[in-house]
Amino acid sequence: MLFSPKLLGKKDILTGAGKILAIEDKIDLPFSFCDQWDAKGKTLTPGFIDQHIHIIGAGGKHGFGSMTPEINISELIACGTTSVVGLLGTDGSSRSIKSLYAKTKALESEGLSAYMFTGYYGLDPVYITESVQDDMVFIQPVLGCKIAITDIRSSFPTDLELLRLLRQVTVGGMLANKKGILHIHLGGLKTKMDILFRLVEEHEFPISHISPTHVGRTKDLFDQAIAFAKLGGMIDITTGASKYTDPYKSVLYALEQGVSMDKMTFSSDGNAGLDKLDEKGNLIGFRRAPIHQNYEQVKALIHSGNVGIEEAVKLITANPASNLGLKTKGNIYVGCDADFCCLDSDFNLTEVFAKGKLMMENSTVIAKGHFE
């Protein structure tokens, strides 16, 4: 069965040059000239999108030894991720925005679709060029800018400073034919999302360019995020870290409160640096935030019996594509990129295609990075 993510039923799909060329009930071609793959009895969805993942590593809050390593392409394929958006975290000193760009292009060369956010937690200019706007215009993979608020590690930006960043993201997007978003890390301070509501309600900035993440960090923060979504904003629920409850339960709660599924996304915050603590709360080591929880939480949502696959899979396909302004991602239509995830009857991943290339077969990753 084909989910685009809308249920389309049983279909044949023709792909070529990394794109979807046709979707029909039956496609008759001289298959001696084509590679044919039979998905009989399986479920096909768009490839999964992770719009917040630390592809060059993160961490470092306990010194250089606590910094996480780079991600390999096989780790991403193993959890169905065919498109990523890399970003910096707290560290804008030893982690370079140019290294992030290089890793983005490396993943692209290995077969994935890779993008990035310029900037980092702070307001100081950590850009490839001289400004956010120029990065948006001249650096193809740059989709927006990251900034942190309500966190002791942030620069405590004012309304005016955020508005000026938003202006650069938006105008840069206009010039480069990108949507342009300001991707906003939410910390745990009591001010929560107050400043974002002022940007929308008092300063009248279009909410579609404001992209808050880690909204499920606390119950109080998530209740405020629900109000933001009801204003028309897209809210991003982290699955790998920074959560007060299972992310799928946050989705169920938001739906009960009247939030549309189309206004929520999952992202992993994968490869962020997390502490290992003993039973007394003492630090005993470090670990990487998992990158595989996006789809695990979608599966949990489906198995809850409250949400079908057509709606649940939007959280990691159509919705992040809409949030990022990626018109050829997150859906299965003619003209879209040929990114697919194939699932068995228990919704386990069996095959993954990225831009038309088979990357996982029979639940085994067959695509490796250049140094794996």
Structure summarized in a few sentences:
The protein is globular.
Write up this protein.
With 372 residues, this protein is an alpha/beta fold. It contains ten helices and 19 strands. The protein has helices at 73-77, 97-109, 132-138, 159-176, 194-201, 219-230, 247-256, 293-303, 309-312, 318-324; strands spanning 2-3, 7-9, 12-16, 19-24, 43-46, 48-53, 81-86, 113-119, 142-149, 181-186, 210-213, 235-238, 264-267, 273-277, 283-288, 340-343, 349-354, 357-361, 364-365. The strands form six sheets. It has a six-stranded parallel β-sheet, sandwiched between helices. A five-stranded antiparallel β-sheet has the order 5-16-17-18-19, with no helix packed on it. A hairpin with a 5-residue loop joins strand 16 (340-343) and strand 17 (349-354). Helix 3 (132-138) packs parallel to helix 4 and helix 7 (247-256) crosses helix 8 (293-303). It is globular. The mean pLDDT is 95.
- What's the story with the biggest beta sheet? 6 strands, parallel
CATH fold label of the largest domain:
TIM Barrel
Please estimate the helix content: 25-40%
**SSE order in H/E notation?**
EEEEEEHEHEHEHEHEHEHEEEHHHEEEE
Shape: globular
At the fourth level of CATH, the homologous superfamily of the largest domain is Metal-dependent hydrolases
Percent range for β-strand residues: 25-35%
The beta-strand count equals 19
Overall radius of gyration: 20 Å
The CATH class designation of the largest domain is Alpha Beta
Please count the helical segments: 10
> What's the average pLDDT?
95
Strand order of the largest sheet: 6-7-8-9-10-11
> How far apart lie the N and C ends?
34 Å
Q: Uncertain regions: pLDDT < 50 for 5+ in a row?
A: none
Coarse structural class: alpha/beta
The total domain count is 2
